[in-house]
Amino acid sequence: MVAIDIALEFVDRINRRDVGLLCELMTEDHRFIDSDGTVTVSDRESMRESWRSYYAMVPDYRIDVEETISSGDAVVLLGIASGTYTVDGELEPVNHWETPAAWKAVVRDNRVAEWRVWADLEPIRAVMRRLGTSD
Question: What is the tally of structural domains in the chain?
């Protein structure tokens, strides 16, 4: 498979919210880099728990890819991230957010070795502040 196909499959697995399938497509030393450039997770098993926690907080999280750019083993995806923030599992439309975003996948041995996100986090933070769940 080529890197772009693997990156798009990774997005599909994110959108299916099946943590097991998602983790199968990660290298053992998978790294997640957040919007401010911090490596927040540096292995597949830690990432497994991070995705479970995120899906508990945003059960309908999804990525809609509008454009892809690839060079060798690196793929950049441009699009929209969206979801509904919840503290109790109830998906209230007023707590839905969306934001333009970009992602970079670095592929090694037909798996995603690095997933980097650039997104404006203000939309979800505004919901969290309104609900009193963030500073």
Answer: 1
Tell me the C-alpha distance between 7 and 105, whole Å.
Answer: 6
- Give Cβ neighbours of residue 109 (< 8 Å, ≥ 6 apart): 27
pTM strictly above 0.90: yes
Structure confidence by residue, pLDDT tens digits, 17-51: 999 999 999 999 999 999 888 887 788 989 999 99
Q: Which residues of the chain have pLDDT under 50?
A: none
Identify the CATH number of the domain in which residue 113 sits.
3.10.450.50
55: left (phi over 0), alpha (psi -120 to 50) or beta: alpha
State the residue range of the domain holding 100.
Answer: 3-131
Q: E strands, the chain, where?
A: 26-33, 39-41, 62-71, 74-84, 96-108, 111-119
